[in-house]
Amino acid sequence: MTYDTVVIGLGNPLMGDDGLGLTALEALRDGWEFEPHLELMDGGTWGMNLLPFIEAADRVLILDAIKGNAAPGTLLDLDRDQIPRFLATKISPHQIDFREVLALAELRGTLPAELVALGVQPEAVEMSAELTPIVRERVPALVKKALERLELWGYRVTRRATAPGA
Does residue 164 sit within a domain? Predict the structure, then answer.
């Protein structure tokens, strides 16, 4: 199977601001319709299981908490060449992170040409099922930025009539 565009929400919802990508993905899923169809994926902490979806896509949009040496709550927009990817020595095969998935796709020559990561600088990544207030209030801006990117890629975006606040 191939995909034109895959939007992947990343993170762990039990680690505070690390759950941002999944929160933004749910806001897209619940509030918006896209034409033509695109794949919205809860990537959570899937690790290497995301590789086939990335390799099968022409474009990938990643939603995640991004540590960028900025003030907490800062909206960050990284293009393909700005997104870190590397392979590292691990003591366990369970330590795969998303940067390694991207590195493997790049080594295999299957990393999509259009790859964008959108996110917010986290304030706290610690045991908590809640985003911090500063990150939570930035979710609408992150969703807006994702919608703008999808429109730039040629998608028609419409608000669902049943969307919260519609």
Answer: no
Beta strands in the chain (DSSP E): 3-10, 32-35, 39-44, 57-65, 75-79, 114-120, 156-159
In a domain, 166, yes or no: no
21: phi > 0 → left, psi -120 to 50 → alpha, else beta; which? alpha
**What would the pLDDT profile of 90-140 be if each residue is shown by its tens digit?**
433 434 578 889 999 999 999 999 999 999 999 999 999 999 999 999 999
Q: Which amino acid is at 72?
A: P
The answer to whether residue 146 is domain-embedded is yes
CA distance 145 to 28: 11
User: The whole model's pTM is what?
Assistant: 0.90
Q: How many domains does the chain have?
A: 1
Residue 65 sits in a domain whose CATH number is: 3.40.50.1450
